[in-house]
Design brief:
Layout (H helix, E strand, L loop, with lengths): L12 H7 L40 H13 L4 E5 L2 H10 L6 E5 L4 H10 L6 E5 L4 H5 L6 E7 L11 H10 L3 E5 L17 E5 L13 E5 L2 H14 L5 H11 L2 H19 L5 E5 L9 H7 L6 E6 L2 H11 L4 E2 L9 E3 L11 H6 L6 E5 L5 H12 L1
Parallel strand pairs: 2-3, 2-4, 4-5, 5-6, 10-11
Antiparallel strand pairs: 1-7, 6-7, 8-9, 9-12, 11-12
Helix pairs in contact: 1-2, 2-8, 3-4, 11-13
The structure holds pyridoxal-5'-phosphate.
Length: about 400
């Protein structure tokens, strides 16, 4: 019998998640590689190193973690950062004054703030499409457009954008496409295989997966695209420390398992409450009623673990619901094993003026659930009680 092909590129998702970047330590045989805390590396002779000299530039623990993320996203290389926004900052810094970025308007608030309150001063312009269609992005593109930036699914309305079509559009205009893949994770969506040039993550969410470590990552499809990213990572220095990297890498090993369960629970909740008397509207990309249901089927292997819904009874009824859940904690963030509940209009999207917010669908009745991996029956009972 021929030996199976277990080269990295041939491995399936959960195998990669556990084995890439986790070779036993050659000096001791320890099955789990040690956490390398040293800031500096002893040289045999000036300039003669074993590949490591100073920990901001390169660190073995971080190197292993970057290897597994690159493998899971089917990219050439990965650079990790101390937060998701540090990763985003890096990518915007590969652009130059006078360039512009075209993004979808339902954008993570911190990314919008970065473009409008940091980069605008340096003459990098953000332009925003109010529609998901590729043609509405095209109208905003000119000769100075160097990057199209999208999240899909978006936050909190869970709209999905066509990665393949946007990649073709970007490339036809000499621009790149970056996808913030935080909500989907590489377990459910591989933007680079669909034509995107960069996949960006807040690893704080599903990749870390336990709501206990902040981090970010940029994965590039080509080695050439990693060059300016790697340069900036070292030059600006917002790198994650070895303990954070160790924890995040530990999370990665169960990402595939966790996402299966997040999706299963989210599907159960979405279908259970879709026609519930206390719910005005259920928003989940896995429901046929969702406007992007067909697209989700073609570019994702599952609709994700995020569910949004509009509660009946206006602001008061929604506040009562938010105060009554026991398992769903009322908290910002998402992607951990525990279920969270968020009121976007007051909590995460309060900085957007009320009229603009409401015109986009972020009303006082909207709540966003980050469905955890608890038992679905318990989660459903918790929501039933809170709605009652
Ligand atoms: C949280 C988040 C970010 C920012 O990441 P931090 O780790 O908080 O800096 C960016 N994009 C999306 C979609 C997020 O959910």
């Amino acid at each position: 019998m021929e030996a199976p092909n277990l080269m990295e590129a041939a491995m399936k998702f959960c195998t990669k998640a556990i084995h890439v970047g986790q070779s036993p330590d050659p000096s001791t045989g320890s099955t789990i590689p040690p956490i390398h805390i040293s800031t500096t590396y002893t040289q045999a002779s000036p300039g003669v190193t074993k590949g490591y000299d100073y920990s901001r530039s390169v660190n073995p623990t971080r190197h292993n973690y970057e290897a597994v993320l690159a493998a899971l996203e089917c990219g050439a290389e990965c650079a990790t950062f101390s937060s998701g926004l540090a990763a985003t900052t890096c990518l915007f810094n590969t652009l130059r004054p006078g360039d512009n970025v075209v993004a979808y308007s339902d954008l993570y608030g911190g990314t919008y703030r970065l473009l409008e309150q940091v980069f605008r001063h340096w003459n990098l312009e953000g332009r925003y499409s109010d529609e998901t269609s590729t043609s509405s992005f095209e109208k905003l593109i000119d000769a100075n457009t160097k990057l199209i930036w999208v999240e899909t699914p978006t936050n909190p309305l869970l709209r999905c954008l066509d990665i393949k079509a946007l990649a073709e559009l970007a490339h036809a205009h000499g621009a790149k496409l970056a996808v913030d893949n935080t909500f989907a994770t590489p377990a459910l969506q591989n933007p680079l295989n669909l034509g995107a040039d960069y996949s960006v993550h807040s690893t704080t969410k599903y990749i870390g997966g336990h709501s206990d470590v902040v981090g970010g990552a940029v994965i590039t499809k080509t080695e050439a695209d990693m060059e300016p990213v790697r340069f900036y990572q070292n030059a600006a220095g917002a790198v994650p420390g070895p303990f954070d990297v160790y924890l995040s890498h530990r999370g990665v090993k169960t990402l595939g398992l966790r996402m299966d369960r997040h999706v299963e629970n989210a599907r159960r909740i979405a279908s259970h409450f879709e026609d519930h008397a206390g719910i005005e509207k259920m928003i989940y990309p896995g429901l046929e009623s969702h406007p992007d249901f067909a697209l989700v089927g073609s570019q994702m292997s599952g609709p994700g673990g995020m569910v949004s819904m509009v509660i009946k009874g206006g602001r008061d009824g929604t506040f009562r619901f938010c105060e009554r859940t026991k398992l769903f904690s009322l908290a910002e963030s998402l992607g951990g094993v525990e279920s969270l509940l968020n009121h976007p209009a007051i909590m995460t999207h309060a900085s957007i003026p009320k009229e603009i917010r409401e015109s986009r669908g972020v009303t006082d009745g909207l709540v966003r659930l980050s469905v955890g991996i608890e038992d679905a029956d318990d989660l459903i009972a918790d929501l039933e009680y809170a709605l009652g």
